[in-house]
Hints:
By secondary structure, the chain is an alpha+beta fold.
Amino acid sequence: MPAMVPTGLGDVESHEAGGARPFLILLDFARIDNTARDGVTGHRKAWRMNIGEKIKSLRIKMQMTQEDLANRVDLSKGFISQLERNLTSPSISTLVDILECLGTDLRNFFNEPIEEMVVYGKDDIFEKEDRQLRCVISWLIPNSQKNDMEPIMMTLEPGGASMVGDPHEGEEFGYVLSGHIYITLNGKRHKCKKGESFYFKPTSEHGISNPSKSEAVVLWVCTPPSF
Length: 227
């Protein structure tokens, strides 16, 4: 049975040197979306750390050869070479010894920051239909309410409208992708058609509507998040 060591980030699975599987750390974390929205659930993702590549990087940073490291931990140069290529795996005690020679320990070695997503796709979009208002809101960025701004795409059926937004600090921007809409602000209506954009400071009640006989689609960005 492989040894298991808790790191605070996940479970570390170790295989002895004769194992065929590369030594990888599997980290699970929850990306929790806004639970106040109906139907929104958390998504779980897995992230793998390449142990061999990171050991090699640390060794080079310490200006050590594979032979230098092998001699310090009483291992063969061949074992270090295979470890760095993920062809073999150390026991936990051996890994501790290697990391000590490289000037670190298990906690700091596995405390690697997880890169934030930059590109988002269809699988990341959450949609909510409001049949009463005859519109569909698509949240383009998961958990965007924690950010400074929140982009959505709103699809308005003929006669559809957004909810009336309360006054708040910040700014709002929109771009009409198709059809045309009316922005209601300060009691006035402003027409905005395909290819045009709108921008305003929401110091009064505000919203958009589609009085036409065809569908309208709007990219809408709000800061701070309020959708």
